Every structure is written in structure tokens, then in C-alpha cells.
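Page 47, continued from p. 46.
Same chain as before, 123 aa.
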Amino acid sequence: MRTGVALSDPGRVLATPLEVVPTAELTGYLARLFEREDVREVVVGMPRTLAGEVGPQARRVLDTLAVLRREFPEVRFVEWDERLTTRIAAAGVRTKKKGKRVRVDHLAAAGMLQEYLARRGAL
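Result:
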């Protein structure tokens, strides 16, 4: 499993895609990122089914989220509905390069973060 990572600007207006990280390496990656950046809040995509239910993929995310919350208690983790974000991100991107699938998870993460930032600013 892989995780797309995006970061917002200091003013929390614009989301920028960073990279795709193997989920097994996510805790170490985030520790290094948190050392470099002033991160207080992390938006975590919750891959619910189209019916809005928690399926096997969402359960894996919840397990990872429990570990992250224990590891980084000073950071607020916000669950966010990520249904269809990868498909939307892939719509404008060539998803194959020389026979290899190109990951767009970081683009999906940026789209999801941008939506979160927009909705948060509107409230």
C-alpha cells in the first residue's frame, strides 16, 4: 500500500503535491517532514465505499491512523472522505509511462487537501 502526501503553504491556502510514500515507511517519512515543516494538522483520506461504508481499505487506513496518532500526539489528524479523488486526479494525467503505471496518489492528496482548505476557509 502507498500513501500520497501533499503539503499546504504557510497561509493554508494552496495545497502542493509532494510524493507517494510506501505506507510501511510513512511514520519515518512524517517524522522527517515534521522536523522540516511546522505541521500541526494532517488530513487523512478515508477511502469509504461509494455507499459511505467502512470497507477493508478504510480499516487498514484506520489501523495506520491509530499508529500515527500514538506516534505524533501533538499533531491533529483529521479524517476526510477521499472517494473518487484518485480518479479525479488521474483524469488530467497520463497514467502510463513506458509501460509502467504512474502514481497519482500525491496529486489526489493535494486535491483532497485543497478541498479541505477551501471548505475550512468557508466555514
